[in-house]
Amino acid sequence: MTLSLPKGQDKPQRRAFIAGALGVCASALWPPRLSAQNSKTRLILLGTGGGPRPRAAPSSPAQVIIANGVPYVVDCGDGVSRQLVAAGVSLPALRHIFITHQHSDHNADYGNLILLSWAIGLRTPVDTWGPPPLAGMTRLFFEMNAFDINTRIADEGRVPLVPLVRVHELTAGGVVLQDDNVKVTAALVHHPPIQHAFAYRFDAPDRSIVISGDTAVSKNLIALAQGADVLVHEALWVPAVDRIVAKIPNATTLKQHIIDSHTAAEDCGRVAAAAGVKTLVLSHLVPPDDPAITDQTWIDAAKKHFSGRIVVGKDLMEI
Ligand SMILES: [Zn+2]
Ligand SMILES: [Zn+2]
Question: How much of the chain is helix, strand and coil, in % rounded to 5?
Fold first, then answer.
């Protein structure tokens, strides 16, 4: 059978326009709409290793920001559901998912996170944001899993899953969400050949957190991250790229591609300094698990140009 998205979720351009219009309105309201904050805004790194290769550790890229007790998941690399459980986040409380870009190290478990959260009790809407073809991917994922979904509805009395999920495709930067807990702003970053790759900024009353997604040095990211408390930035150890591409047929081309679409650890420090952030968190580490590259290696590279606090990201680290 065919499962379709709820009415009105099949026109990405119209949605982007509406999101943009809402962004302007929401921005004008900021911050008086915020309800009283009753807990510190938390950032937990769920997966800190870059690239799609499944590993024992570190897990693939994902993080969660918890504002007023509400989780905002950014990226859904392999194992994101398990990592959320390990971080103590209740999956039926899933409410918001942001995908930075459609590379499999960032989206492989996007659908699984929704499906598995629903299978253990999610009954409330989930809003998802990300670049095209997020709407099509969501629809096809539900179609692929229609047997399980329909079985659980009939057998376990679960609420229908498909109408719970509201997809918001993004093709431009700007404010994408403002609710009682946070304002979320997206910016297009530079991650060729991907046209639509985003960084996200979360402004809560007590702190601001920016997630770079994958990007080469990006002026848009520097602008987005101005004055933020925390910048989680992807980091590449360039001398290791030769080893990474060694077994791949088009090694020379791929090496240049990796360097051109990511940010060297040293340049992460430059970006953090230019944005004036307080804390730089290096994550999406590439290579992710080379014992020859120590935390000090990463820190020494980044601190050449940045005098603030530098943290080397670890799975389940809270910042
Ligand atoms: Zn990546
Ligand atoms: Zn990527």
Answer: 35, 25, 40
Q: How far is the CA of 264 from the centre of ligand 1 (A)?
A: 14
How many A from CA of 215 to the centre of ligand 1? 9
Q: How confident is the model at residue 249 (pLDDT cuts 50, 70, 90)?
A: confident
The residues whose Cβ lies within 5 A of ligand 2, an ion, are 103, 214
**Amino acid identity, position 236:** L
Tell me how far the alpha carbon of residue 49 lies from the centroid of ligand 1, in angstroms.
Answer: 8
Sole residue written with tokens 């800190």: 48
pLDDT at 13: 40
Torsion of CA 135, 262, 178, 308, to 10 degrees: 160
Q: How far is the CA of 191 from the centre of ligand 2 (A)?
A: 7
The CA 249 to ligand 1 mean position distance, Å, reads 21
For 23-56, what is each residue's pLDDT tens digit?
Answer: 333 333 444 344 556 679 999 999 999 999 999 9
- What is the model's pTM? 0.88
In the reported structure, the alpha carbon of residue 190 is separated from the centroid of ligand 1 by a whole-number distance in angstroms of 12
Q: Which two tokens stand for residue 241?
A: 């790229």
Read off the tokens for 231: 């910048």
The C-alpha atoms of residue 246 and residue 267 are separated, in whole angstroms, by 24
Which numbered ligand comes closest to the C-alpha of 49? 1
Specify whether the CB–CB gap between 23 and 176 falls below 8 A.
yes
CB within 8 Å of 271: residues ≥ 6 apart: 217, 218, 221, 222, 225, 231, 233, 263
